[in-house]
User: Fold this.
Amino acid sequence: MISFWNKYRPVLVLFFFLCVSLFIFTRSLRDQLQSKQNYLKMAISSAGYPLQKAFSSAMQVIVSGWRKYLFLNNLEQENETLRRQLAQTQFQLYQLKETQSEQFRMSKLLQIQPELEFETIQATVIGRDSLNWFHTMTLDKGSANGVKKGAAVLNLDGVVGQIIMTGPYTSTLLPIIHAESGVSGIIKISRVQGTVIGTGDGRIFFKYVDRKAILSAGDLIVTSGLDRIFPKGLPIGRIINVQKIPNGLFLEVQIESAVNFSRLEETLIMISPLSDEKTEFSNNGDMK
Assistant:
């Protein structure tokens, strides 16, 4: 072994140094390559940084905008749902108030029904003629309910009009403000008689009153019962203006109806013939 070492020592030493040199060279070359790769990566990264930053910022803006859109869209849907719920609640509240108001008005009619000397049936206005000059109304009761043509119609305030046409379940009302309407009336205090006639434009007059009669604004005119349609003593209206026509035989007396026809909703229709008994009302129009 010693002889082998002594014999080949120079060769072995040279081979060792060659291996070490080769290792060092290989390591150095690898480090250089890695350094170049790192440099290349850094160069590429540096060159692409503005683009990456712009892309990242754009993506952030897009994502943020999309999230805001989804949030606002959901918020709008929730608001729309809440608006519909609020509208429905308000409508239900309106219906409830309207029902309560109608029930109150109907209860008032029920209170006076037993005091009347004739049989009546409650009826509600369900339609009005679209032509203002005609002034007819449709009620929700007809011949099937005992309503007959010519029946008198009234409400809490006084005389409303007369039934001129009936169907099985509806009837047509001719109000006293109609130009073809006529009601026999009498002044409550002075007992001056006349006929209440409408003009078709909402006004009514107390006709055929002697020019010598003494009348005053505010006098209450009630039904006289002479027409055999309306019971005696029902309020028709109050005098608002009295004029003497030159060379005329009669006074021109304008009255204001006791009934507000623009707000008329509930009525009472007479369904029994008049008897000899009369229904009297006090000066202010209340039943006594």
